[in-house]
Specification:
The chain is 59% helix and 6% strand. The chain is mainly alpha-helical. Helix 2 crosses helix 3.
């Protein structure tokens, strides 16, 4: 699964730590999701999308291997 989290964070000028605190996870979790090493739960994906003011589909995209 691909994602635009790094881009969306840059637009809002927030760090991985700040995003993590807003949605109740660790910075390492945000790092793993951005790197594509961890697929977030539906709840976590919805929380991230809400922080960015976007739909889940605008933040996460299926990869051809998904």
């Amino acid at each position: 699964m691909k994602n635009n989290i790094r881009v969306e964070r840059a637009i809002l000028r927030i760090t991985q730590q700040q995003l993590a605190e807003q949605i109740g996870v660790t910075r390492q979790t945000i790092n793993a999701i951005e790197a594509g090493k961890y697929v977030p739960s539906t709840v976590l994906a919805l929380k991230m999308a809400a922080v960015f003011g976007k739909s889940v589909n605008d933040v996460f995209m299926l990869d051809e291997n998904d």
